[in-house]
């Protein structure tokens, strides 16, 4: 009689650099919690080696993994089957094999939505103000479009990038000048910062003028930031000081990990306060 040793699933996160990624901590927390055999490791890959890395996934024994900056567009291009979210966003952050075919999804929009569902159930509205026009903004706009927002005002320091992104999406997305931010605030049911403004390593001087003023905001507005280092970014501190609803960005990171974990390890994991505290602890917050 032969002993059949079940194959242990091996997953990865790749980026350049990748050392800062919290994904290994999230997936290892779940592997332990659900008592599953499996591994999840960070693999740093330079852009020029990315295609070779993708082509060697099966040989290396990986069942799939996460992709972070700067490889998300390449991961999308190199995968053979792409779901609707990846296709609409034009970038992939989650890869897996189905019948030996490399499949891709983008779960950033899902993570964004699930985080707001968690902390602001029933969120929504007619108008959103999205600040920033990078890769993260694409995932946010995709979600807001799905969620039925009719007016998505997009402001970016570099106007041309906002125009390009607005052109890519439907007529609901309207590019506006950076200088118009405060005029758009009173219209918004949701305000989302997707820029790196407010990040710990992009420190704004304490006494410097905020890039947005929330004094004319609707009392029912929901304010959120996709930056989570620090957890309370300047825009969230301002919302808090004005007694406005706000949701911090760490939950987006936690929730975007859920669909990948389920594909690789077979269980849909739960994002709860225990995980949140664990990851905040690792971040030193
Ligand atoms: P990501 O993929 O994480 O969104 P990105 O593509 O580099 O990253 O985009 C970063 C966003 O932050 C952009 O909207 C960028 O504005 P520009 O397109 O004008 O570069 C914005 N950003 C970064 N630093 C900024 C600053 N000091 N002031 C205003 N916007 C800033």
Task: Write a concise keyword list for the protein shown above.
285 residues, 6-stranded parallel beta sheet, amino-acid biosynthesis, Shikimate_DH, Rossmann fold, oxidoreductase, binds 2'-monophosphoadenosine-5'-diphosphate, shikimate 3-dehydrogenase (NADP+) activity, Shikimate_DH_fam
What do you see in this structure?
The chain has helices at 23-33, 50-55, 72-78, 84-89, 108-119, 135-146, 159-168, 181-184, 234-241, 250-256, 258-265, 273-282; strands at 10-15, 39-44, 62-67, 81-82, 94-98, 101-105, 127-131, 151-155, 173-176, 190-193, 222-225, 245-247. The strands form 2 sheets. The chain has a 6-stranded mixed sheet, sandwiched between helices. Strands 9-8-7-10-11-12 form a 6-stranded parallel sheet, with helices on both faces. Helix 5 crosses helix 10 (250-256). Strand 7 (127-131), helix 6 (135-146) and strand 8 (151-155) form a beta-alpha-beta unit. It contains 12 helices and 12 strands. The mean pLDDT is 95. The protein is globular. It is of the alpha/beta class.
């Amino acid at each position: 009689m032969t002993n059949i040793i079940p194959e242990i699933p091996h997953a990865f996160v790749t980026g350049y650099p990748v050392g800062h990624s919290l994904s290994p901590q999230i997936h290892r927390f779940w592997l332990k919690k659900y008592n599953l055999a499996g591994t999840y490791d960070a693999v740093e890959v330079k852009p020029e080696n990315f295609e070779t890395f993708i082509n060697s996934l099966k040989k290396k024994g990986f069942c799939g993994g996460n992709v972070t900056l700067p490889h998300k567009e390449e991961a999308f291009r190199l995968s053979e089957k792409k779901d609707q979210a990846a296709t609409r966003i034009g970038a992939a952050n989650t890869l897996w094999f189905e019948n030996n075919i490399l499949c891709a999804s983008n779960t950033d929009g899902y993570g964004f939505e699930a985080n707001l569902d968690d902390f602001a159930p029933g969120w929504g509205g007619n108008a959103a103000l999205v600040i920033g026009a990078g890769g993260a903004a694409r995932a946010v706009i995709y979600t807001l479009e799905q969620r039925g927002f009719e007016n998505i005002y997009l402001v970016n320091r570099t106007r041309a990038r906002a125009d390009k992104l607005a052109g890519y999406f439907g007529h609901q997305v309207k590019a506006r000048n950076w200088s118009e931010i405060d005029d758009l605030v009173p219209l918004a049911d949701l305000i989302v910062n997707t820029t790196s403004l407010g990040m710990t390593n992009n420190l704004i001087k304490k006494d410097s003028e905020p890039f947005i003023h929330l004094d004319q905001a609707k009392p029912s507005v929901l304010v959120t930031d996709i930056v989570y280092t620090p957890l309370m970014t300047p825009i969230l501190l301002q919302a808090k000081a004005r007694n406005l609803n706000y949701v911090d960005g760490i939950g987006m990171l936690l929730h975007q990990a859920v669909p990948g974990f389920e594909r690789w390890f077979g269980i849909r994991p739960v994002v709860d306060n225990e995980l949140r505290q664990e990851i905040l602890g690792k971040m030193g917050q």
